[in-house]
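Good morning,

Attaching, inline, the backbone tokens for the sequence recovery test we're adding to the shared suite. The designed sequence is right after.
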């Protein structure tokens, strides 16, 4: 399987898994916004707000709940900076990531800004499974998450024109590794995904 790096403008900020191969940068894939030139004759109702994250199951342990909260915080921070190019202090992105994920989030946000695009949300996560934390060697504790990313209603804005388009992209089956720091906080360490109906 090839190793891909895809900006989160299309919510594919991770790479496909290739066992025992170090991540390499691949050409980026972008979705250009398209504008509809025909005005609506009558006012349309506002779209219903869609919750990005499903509620946690009642059986989730306290540790799994902490991992879920850290993962959701990562996505909140990503959306904040991917959606507002005027924010220039990206320190917060480094507080919710560790390892390779620290560079990946910066690269994805930088690529969006280079292309004058802003990501305004519209994805949904489902089928979230969080493994109980386990020792990963060298005193590290990690937890593996699997989930589906529904990208059928992604909203992208052209930062120059203000035109917002809704993009419909294939779903992603994604795996994330969360790592607990020495401060006890969980952070995103890596993400891998592939297009797959899920």
């Amino acid at each position: 399987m090839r190793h891909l790096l895809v900006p989160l403008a299309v919510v594919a900020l991770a790479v496909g898994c290739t066992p025992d191969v170090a991540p390499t940068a691949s050409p980026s894939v972008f979705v250009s916004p398209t504008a509809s030139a025909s005005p609506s004759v009558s006012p349309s109702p506002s779209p219903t707000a869609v919750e990005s994250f499903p509620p946690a199951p009642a059986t989730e342990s306290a540790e799994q709940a902490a991992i879920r909260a850290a993962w959701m915080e990562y996505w909140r921070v990503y959306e904040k900076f991917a959606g507002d190019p005027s924010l220039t202090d990206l320190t917060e992105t480094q507080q919710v990531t560790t390892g390779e994920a620290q560079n990946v989030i910066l690269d994805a946000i930088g690529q969006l800004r280079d292309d004058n695009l802003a990501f305004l949300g519209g994805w949904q996560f489902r089928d979230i499974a969080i493994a109980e934390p386990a020792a990963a060697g060298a005193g590290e504790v990690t937890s593996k998450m699997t989930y589906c990313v529904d990208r059928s209603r992604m909203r992208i804005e052209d930062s120059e024109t203000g035109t917002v388009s809704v993009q419909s992209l294939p779903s992603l089956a994604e795996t994330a590794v969360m790592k607990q720091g020495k401060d006890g906080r969980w952070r995103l360490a890596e993400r891998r995904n592939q297009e797959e109906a899920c």
